[in-house]
Amino acid sequence: MNTLLSVIIIFGLLVFIHEWGHLYFAKRAGILCREFAIGFGPKIFSFKRNETVYTIRLLPLGGFVRMAGEDPEMINIKPGFEIGLVFNASRKVSKIIVNNKSKHPEALVVQVEKIDLEHRLIVEAYNDDGERIQYQVDERAVLVQDEQETQIAPWNRQFGSKTVGQRAMAIFAGPLMNFLLAIVILIAFALFQGMPVDEAQIGDVTPDSAALEAGLQEGDQVLSIDGQPIDSWEEMTSIIQQHPNESIVFEIERAGEVLTIPVTPDERVGQFGDQEGFVGIARPTEFNLMGSIVFGFTQTYLFMTMIFEVLGMIVTGNFSLDYVAGPVGIYNYTGEAAAMGIFVLMQWAAALSVNLGIINLLPIPAMDGGRLIFIGLEAVRGKPIDPQKEGMVHFIGFALLMLLMIVVTWNDINKFFM
């Protein structure tokens, strides 16, 4: 239950922040955002605020912001159609009833001769006397089909009407928010847990550990190990890792007294699959506001470099599916992080947020990076790519991503449960 709750909170937060970035900058650019969704598939819960419908959907595999103009409008009214017109106090059309006109006795039923809901915002139709009349349409008018309302999208409210910079920012804002979220989480981590420092000093000592059994205590200053002077935490842990199940001698200073303490590190599997030693001590920490802010930025940068190193393995041919994780793998790792405490979980959430931001910026169709590539090509060419061709590329990219997701998920199931 703790794992499930942790996954829901972390993934909900990461997806919400990512999509909120798209929503915020799209609205600042004046784009009509029809829907803000967490998840895909059937709707579980929804409500409407201002112009946007906020939904939670069944499949927790991401989210989206549906902006006007990104997809073709689903309702197409042609000359000859009979529609109902409902007017507001300014005598502009506020509702266009597409069908079920009998349920709207207040509507004026007309036969369409000409309609433009993008640029001129007019409906030209014949009245009962055969006279052709032009009706002005309100820019916030809605189309009503099967009793479902859809707000019209004048050209100046559509995604494609905005400048290259505005559209690029609306797309880039999602990953940007993930990077900022990671920085905020890591700053909070450093403020509450303390900022790790690179000193040869003993931090927390784990119960039932080799360090506790040997007599090491929190606050001990390590002077040398096996006669080798030690100046930093990195030097100390490096020596410990090189001596699994081998006795090493710590020379420490405690309360002004120099002590010699032999310690035999335990053995565990290291980051690269080899055996390494560990004694069960935590890195020393300090509490500092400015230092915590710096830690948030530097640790986020470190996460970025680690992710790019893994991505670089794809180019060099050293890549393995075991280096990536799908929903099953991330669920499992989140459970392990949750079992180690809230502070480990915070670091894991920050790493996931950075990972989500970088993966979305890769130049892959259907991802934010793929969309930015098309916007960049438009800036170079001076005109947009054919929307149908771009849509087909994104569709193929999305299909390949789903296939990769299935393969990675199957690999996770084999790795963790078989």
UniProtKB/TrEMBL annotation:
GO MF, one example: metal ion binding
Location relative to the cell: Membrane
Enzyme class: hydrolase
One GO BP: proteolysis
Residues in the signal sequence: none
Protein's UniProt keywords contain Repeat: no
Residues annotated as transmembrane: 168-192, 293-317, 337-362, 391-410
EC numbers, comma separated: 3.4.24.-
PDZ domain location: 194-267
UniProt keywords, alphabetically: Hydrolase, Membrane, Metal-binding, Metalloprotease, Protease, Transmembrane, Transmembrane helix, Zinc
Cofactor(s) named in the record: Zn(2+)
Keyword Transmembrane helix: yes
Domain of life from the UniProt record: Bacteria
Membrane topology annotation: Multi-pass membrane protein
InterPro entries (alphabetical): PDZ, PDZ_6, PDZ_sf, Pept_M50_Zn, Peptidase_M50
GO cellular component: membrane
Any single Pfam family the record assigns to this protein: Peptidase_M50
Family the UniProt entry places it in: Belongs to the peptidase M50B family.
The protein's name in its UniProt record: Zinc metalloprotease
